[in-house]
Write a structure and sequence with these properties.
Blueprint lengths: L2 H15 L6 H14 L3 H8 L1 H9 L4 H9 L4 E4 L2 H10 L19 H15 L3 E6 L7 E7 L3 H10 L4 E3 L2
Antiparallel strand pairs: 1-3, 2-3, 2-4
Amino acid sequence: MTETERLSQLTRLLNLLTGFDQEEQEIAAISQTILAASASTAAMGEAYGKHAQNLMEHDPDGALVLAISYELDDYLALADTVDELWEEILAAFESRDLPAFPYDDMPFQDVDGFFQWANEQLQEFHPSYCLLEFAQSYDEEFQLIVVKREHLDEILTLCEQLDIPAQAAE
């Protein structure tokens, strides 16, 4: 894949992950920053700091995901527990119509059950959205993003082409 094709795919992926929330020029600039930063540990450090540079030294194959994580930090739901994760998901929506985390009457027993419950809530209250497990966070147990359901297949295809681990959180 040429650098131009890679840039084009990354730009499309970022647009889909952000719900076309940003100006095209800004997404294009972010895409270029991500590709430049993921090219070397020095570039990663220059773009995102010493911590990012250290992470890239330990996981050079994860450089692209690391740079994307820094750029899309406001869009990612990061947490160590499912209740914290649900709070992050709630924050993704301006309307507060999703239910609170069910501490007292938990309808699930494990993480897979949580994902099923969370998707049922999204289906009921925001049916055009779903959850995507987006790579693995270096610092948190969970790293998800809320995306438009209609774009899920294209997002997964782009992630596969760019060697970014991703899957629907179901």
